[in-house]
Design a protein that fits this description.
The complex is a heterodimer of chains A (635) and B (177). Chain A is an alpha+beta fold. Helix content of chain A is 52%, strand content 24%. In chain A, strands 1, 2, 3, 4, 5, 6, 7, 8, 9, 10, 11, 12, 13 and 14 form a 14-stranded mixed β-sheet that branches. The chains are: A alpha+beta (635), B mainly alpha (177).
């Protein structure tokens, strides 16, 4: 029997020709359906393709009539593409590789109306499920940022602001040292007065007896009763003895006066010190009424914080989704389609050409739209970036004559060429028109923008799970809506100040782990608000300080004045008594002096009468001596 | 219907005295088809052999179906064996690298452990299985078939209306051809 059946080759060839022709016919619609299904799942709403045609001869795929439904409005397309052509290389296909040299997209029309709703067929639907890790990362990041914003939110500290204006709540008099001292002084001074009065009186009483004795004795030494010079001399000597005692008394009185003066001075000094300390207390307490510790410089953190958190959340969600999709796509590209049954393992061998399994070398999209121009470029899109050794880059740009912004550009780089995954995005958005936008927490000072313009510049780098992002915004031509006034006086002031700001810059930076980034918002807005609030508050602070000073002077100053009066009164009383006594001593002294003089006069008289040389008729020499003696005595 | 017709023909041929090699090679090729996971290029190549050689289609399809079930159980072994071939035999590595970098060859999925293991086992077992099937067919014809035809059940079946109708159909068919 013959083993070979050469005629059998004919049906084989016919069979495969039929399969080939069939595949050519069916391949187009098969790929069209596959592409529409994948794109719809990715878009979240129906993506329709009118026609797809593959030409192996020209190595080209032509796609016509792509409609991408807007998931938020199913009767509208996000955009419509008239013609798309893909130039691919045929030979890599034989090696199980897809290399697309260039994708050209033309006739792009955004926001076109749809004839029927672009709902994804139920059998195509597959919800993008956020994996638990992404969800937890998102939750952690939002919580962390909220903590950072709340921690620096000044309005929380404003709750006690009303107390700062009330002197009674601001100052606890019982705890104020100067108040305690002022309270204690009157009693102290009363005691002092009593003690020194007692001492003075005892002193005076002791001296009075002697003074009276001296007076009486001086009185007994009446010159008229003195008959002889000798008696006069004796009387003078007696009074001179008194004079010494009187002088000693006078000295002790003067010493007492001096001591009293010093003691009074000590108390006066106490009052002076108290007054000084009290003035210092006033200054210190007045300084308590200030807003320096309210950190108004961080107001922008609380106003823009919520907005930043919201957008960071959205960004993370989109980024995680994109990353997940990209990683899955890359993983799918890395792994060959496993055979059914147990799948097995694929062994990869070194390759002689470094063409990845999927490579889209260049995408060029340029569209003229009604409002302006839109362009997109991308390069090196591949499932095996490490093999290609080039990162994927893309640029999107739009320039509009009319519309929500005037110019936008986004440059991106997705680098998976090394183990260190790096994604970088740079975006510029000029002339973004703001409509009615409310920034900031409603409970604080809502920044209710009526209209304005913003120029934004941002750069985001994500290396593995570390983010380094910086966005700068230049807000200008701003006007505000009237919103319900805040209940708190300071918030109201801040709100009033905000209304006057016509332009400001904001810089937002996020650094650190994607899960726990450190948020920092700096803004000229802070400075403007600070200056405005300070200006308004300065008057309020001054009034509050005056009120506090009046209160302190009323409560403490009154007591100090009373103490001062009391010490003055005591001083006067003491000195009145002492002076009076001193006068008595001085009078006694004067009396003694006067009596001595009188006695001397009397003695002279007596001498003149009784010992005149002529009357004595002394010899010539003796007479001369007596005369000389009398001259010496002044007689 | 084609497969069912082929199986009926197989029973007829099995019960005749000719075509033992054709049936045996059908079983052997079906075994290879069944063991190797579905892959377009390998299927095309095997189908080419099927068309080129006198191989009984019914035997091949029957064997394909039976060995496909059997192969599912053997996959873990094919995986280990194929992986060893791909990675554990250094002398083969240059051969695999060359094949890996050639056009078309990567489409065979030869670098998959299950594909490699099952294809190698299938091809290696082809000739021994061919001889075994031939031997089994001969044995069947010499002993089992005679016993069966003399059995009461078989004799009873020949008396049934269905059998007479089938015979008539056969005669008409022969006349037509």
């Amino acid at each position: 029997m013959k083993m070979l059946r050469l005629k059998g080759i004919v049906p084989f060839i016919i069979f495969f020709l039929l399969v080939y022709l069939g595949s050519i016919y069916w391949l187009d619609s098969f790929l069209k359906r596959k592409l529409a299904k994948s794109a719809s799942r990715l878009n979240g709403a129906l993506v329709e393709i009118a026609d797809l045609n593959i030409s192996f001869r020209n190595s080209r795929v032509n796609i016509r009539g792509i409609q991408v439904t807007d998931p938020e409005n199913l009767m509208r397309n996000r955009f419509e593409v008239g013609e798309t052509s893909l130039d691919f290389q045929f030979l890599p296909l034989l090696k199980k590789k897809v290399v697309i040299e260039e994708v050209k997209v033309a006739e792009v029309r955004p926001f076109t109306e749809r004839q029927r709703p672009g709902r994804i067929p139920a059998r195509w639907q597959r919800q993008w499920q956020q994996d638990s890790e992404t969800a937890s990362m998102l939750g952690d990041a939002i919580e962390e940022l909220k903590k950072q914003v709340v921690a620096q939110l000044p309005p929380l500290a404003l709750e006690q602001l009303g107390d700062r204006f009330d002197p009674r709540k601001l100052v606890d008099l019982q705890a104020l040292e100067t108040y305690q001292r002022a309270n204690a002084l009157p009693n102290e001074f009363k005691e002092f007065g009593k003690e020194w009065q007692q001492r003075t009186r005892e002193f005076v009483a002791a001296q009075r007896k002697k003074i009276d004795t001296y007076k009486q004795q001086i009185a007994t030494l009446d010159p008229k009763k003195i008959k002889t010079p000798q008696a006069a001399i004796e009387a003078i000597q007696t009074i001179q003895t008194f004079q010494q005692e009187i002088g000693a008394q006078k000295n002790s009185v003067e010493n007492l006066v001096k001591e009293t003066k010093e003691a009074v001075q000590v108390n006066v000094q106490k009052v002076t010190d108290l007054k000084k300390d009290f003035e210092s207390d006033i200054d210190t307490l007045k300084k308590k009424i200030s807003f320096g510790d309210l950190e108004l410089g961080r107001v922008s953190q609380s106003i823009f914080g919520g907005y930043v958190i919201q957008h960071y959340g959205q960004f993370l969600q989109h980024y995680s989704r994109m990353k997940l999709w990209y990683d899955k796509w890359k993983a799918a590209g890395d792994e060959d389609e496993k055979p059914e049954r147990h799948g097995g393992r694929f062994v990869h061998f070194p390759v002689t050409d470094r063409t990845p399994k999927f490579l889209l070398q260049k995408v060029d999209l340029s569209a003229r739209i009604e409002q302006g121009r839109f362009a997109a470029k991308a390069a090196a899109i591949t499932t095996q970036p490490q093999l290609l050794g080039k990162p994927t880059t893309f640029t999107l740009s739009a320039e509009l004559q009319e519309g929500p912004f005037s110019r936008a550009e986004l440059n991106g780089l997705v680098d998976r060429t090394t183990q260190q995954n790096l994604d970088e995005f740079q975006a510029t958005l000029s002339g973004l028109r703001l409509g009615k936008t409310t920034l900031g927490p409603q409970s604080f000072a809502p920044l209710a923008l009526k209209q304005g313009r913003v120029d934004l510049q941002g750069k985001v780098s994500i290396a593995t799970d570390q983010i380094d992002a910086r966005v700068d915004g230049d807000f200008h031509k701003l006007s505000y809506d009237n919103v319900k006034r805040a209940s708190h006086p300071l918030v109201e002031i801040i709100y009033d100040v905000i209304q006057t700001i016509r332009k400001f810059q904001v810089g937002v930076s996020l650094q650190g782990e994607l899960r726990r980034p450190k948020l920092r918002i700096s803004s000229t807005f802070d400075q403007a608000i600070k200056q405005g609030v300070e200006k308004v508050l300065l008057a309020k602070i001054k009034a509050a300080q005056a009120k506090l000073e009046a209160y302190l002077r009323a409560e403490v100053g009154k007591k100090i004045t009373a103490a001062q009066s009391l010490i003055e009164e005591k001083r006067q009383q003491l000195f009145a008594e002492l002076n009076k006594h001193l006068n008595v001593v001085q009078n006694l002294e004067a009396l003694a002096n006067k009596r001595i003089q009188e006695l001397k006069n009397q003695q002279t008289e007596l001498l003149k009468q009784k010992v005149l040389p002529d009357k004595l008729k002394l010899p010539g020499k003796d007479n001369k001596d007596v005369k000389k003696l009398l001259d010496k005595l002044g007689l | 219907m084609f497969v069912l017709g082929q199986i009926i023909k197989l029973i007829q041929l099995l019960n005749s005295e000719k075509g033992a090699w054709s049936i045996a090679s059908g079983f052997a090729l079906g075994m290879v088809f069944g063991l190797v996971p579905s892959n377009i290029l390998i299927t095309v190549a095997l189908f080419f052999f099927f068309c080129l050689f006198r191989i009984h289609g019914g035997a091949m399809f029957l064997s394909w179906a039976l060995f496909a079930l059997f192969a599912y159980l053997l996959d873990p072994l094919f995986d280990r064996f194929g992986y060893w071939l791909l990675t554990g035999v250094p002398s083969l590595t240059p051969f695999w690298i060359r094949g890996y970098n050639l056009p078309v060859v990567p489409w065979t999925n030869f670098n998959n452990s299950v594909t490699m293991g099952s294809l190698t086992v299938g091809l290696a077992a082809f000739f021994p299985m061919l001889l075994l099937f031939k031997l089994l067919i001969d044995r069947y014809r010499q002993s089992v078939l005679i016993r069966l035809s003399n059995s009461r059940v078989f004799k009873y079946l020949r008396t049934t209306k269905v059998y007479s109708l089938y015979k008539k159909y056969e005669r008409v068919k022969e006349t037509m051809s």
